[in-house]
Every structure is written in structure tokens, then in C-alpha cells.
Automatic annotation (TrEMBL):
Residue numbers carrying 4-aspartylphosphate: 72
Keywords: Phosphoprotein
Name of the protein this chain belongs to: Response regulator
Domain Response regulatory: 23-136
Pfam families: Response_reg
CDD domains membership: REC
InterPro entries, A to Z: Bact_response_regulator, CheY-like_superfamily, Sig_transdc_resp-reg_receiver
């Protein structure tokens, strides 16, 4: 994603655009969740760059230094907690390291790993997003004077949701068991939370239960795959 003109680096944050001049690296595998963050950054004045896995994030971080990093805890090639811990001890340290997830207990895990803040999924409210980011910044980086919280929700692109469903469908076609299926269940759970899709969330959550009953797990996997296909075939639902 292209950066905005470098002119913004010379401007100061304001009440209307409190993150002006910041560059945020978003480490997120879901296009739908990332689009929500893109819109919140846009409304807040920040630039955004995206990495969809740990490897890509480390490649980004080897060549430039963002103002803040938002890291999803469940990524295709490992845990975002590992990257949070790495960045917390790196010198010089990035000023704002923020974890994000929709899983129970994830906030405590992120803070214990070294995160400065946490964004709970679904990520939709601009004011809540700004509050979390600003709380991690030093006073000289925050806008002065009173600031009204923006109680507005963003609406991510439905095509990003469809792209996430295509990604999940491709993985389900290639795998029937193992770590990839565990990842797909976690991935779809996060997308379902962001899209407020309760049936998809329930099916993804059911698949994450212990694998003691193979026939039941197979039925749950088939149900989840069917829901993904339903959403790919029903544009009106997106």
C-alpha cells in the first residue's frame, strides 16, 4: 500500500486527526480485518502498511521503522506473541506495540509478552481505536486540547470478506486435518467476529475443541466448509 506524501511528517496531530504523521504497520492475515484498520487509520490521519504473516512483518521491519505496530496474535506461520516479545526487547524500541485478537484471555497474553496496548476484535469503532493508540504514545506525540471521541463505526469492504472466504475455502480443499485446519478455524473465527457472523463464529469455535472425537470433528469441519461455501455463493449476505 503506497504511503501518503511525506508532507504529513511535518504536520502535527490535531483533535480531528490525532494520529497524523504516524505510520502504522498492521500484521494481520484477514483482509477484512485489515480493511477495518485501514479505514480507522485513514480517518485518524495515519498511514498504514500491511504484513500478512510473521515473515512478511520481519521483512518490513528490517527496512523501515513504523510509529506503531498492530499485531494479530493468530498468524499463518506462528504466534503474534513471538513478534511482540521480539519488538519489546529490540533496540531502539518501536514506540507503540499493540496486540489484537478476539480470543478470550488474549489481552493478558499480549501485555505479558510486552505489548503496550490491546485492540479487541471486532475492530470497528474509530473512537475506541484512537483511544488505544493514543494511550500508548508519549505526551509530546498526542494532540493538545480537548478532543471529542468519534463514536463512529467503519464498514469494511465486502469484497475483502469474500477474499477471506476464498482463502479459507482453498485451504479447506487441500487439508482435512492437522495444524492447517486449526489455523483455518482460528482465522475464520476472527473474520466472523469482525463481520458479526454468529453462525460462522459458532462453527469455527466448535472446531477448536479437543480432537477426542474424530467423527464429530469431521462433521464440524464439514459444517464449517459448508458455511464458507454458502457465503461465497450468497453475495447478498456480505
Amino acid at each position: 500500500m503506497d504511503d501518503l506524501p511525506a508532507l504529513t511528517e511535518t504536520l502535527s496531530p490535531s483533535a480531528a486527526r490525532p494520529l497524523l504523521g504516524m505510520t502504522v504497520l498492521v500484521v494481520e492475515d484477514s483482509l477484512y480485518a485489515c480493511d477495518a484498520l485501514r479505514l480507522m487509520c485513514l480517518h485518524s490521519g495515519a498511514r498504514i502498511r500491511r504484513a500478512d504473516c510473521l515473515r512478511s512483518a520481519r521483512r518490513h521491519l528490517s527496512v523501515y521503522r513504523p510509529s506503531a505496530v498492530i499485531i494479530d496474535l493468530g498468524l499463518p506461520d506462528g504466534s503474534g506473541l513471538d513478534l511482540i516479545a521480539e519488538l519489546d526487547t529490540a533496540q531502539p524500541r518501536i514506540g507503540s506495540i499493540i496486540g489484537t485478537s478476539g480470543m478470550d484471555g488474549a489481552e493478558v497474553e499480549a501485555i505479558n509478552a510486552g505489548a503496550d496496548g490491546f485492540l479487541a476484535k471486532p475492530l470497528l469503532n474509530i473512537g475506541a481505536f484512537q483511544q488505544v493508540i493514543l494511550a500508548t504514545l508519549p505526551r509530546d506525540k498526542q494532540p493538545g486540547g480537548p478532543r471529542a471521541l468519534r463514536d463512529e463505526a467503519v464498514r469494511p469492504d465486502p469484497l475483502a470478506f469474500r477474499d477471506d472466504m476464498i482463502h479459507a475455502s482453498n485451504l479447506l480443499d487441500l487439508h482435512e486435518e492437522g495444524p492447517v485446519i486449526d489455523y483455518v478455524a482460528q482465522f475464520l473465527g476472527g473474520v466472523a467476529q469482525a463481520a458479526d457472523d454468529a453462525p460462522l463464529l459458532d462453527a469455527a469455535t466448535a472446531l477448536t475443541t479437543p480432537r477426542r472425537d474424530a467423527p464429530a470433528r469431521g462433521a464440524r469441519l464439514a459444517q464449517l466448509a459448508g458455511l464458507v461455501q454458502d457465503r461465497l455463493g450468497n453475495r447478498a449476505a456480505m
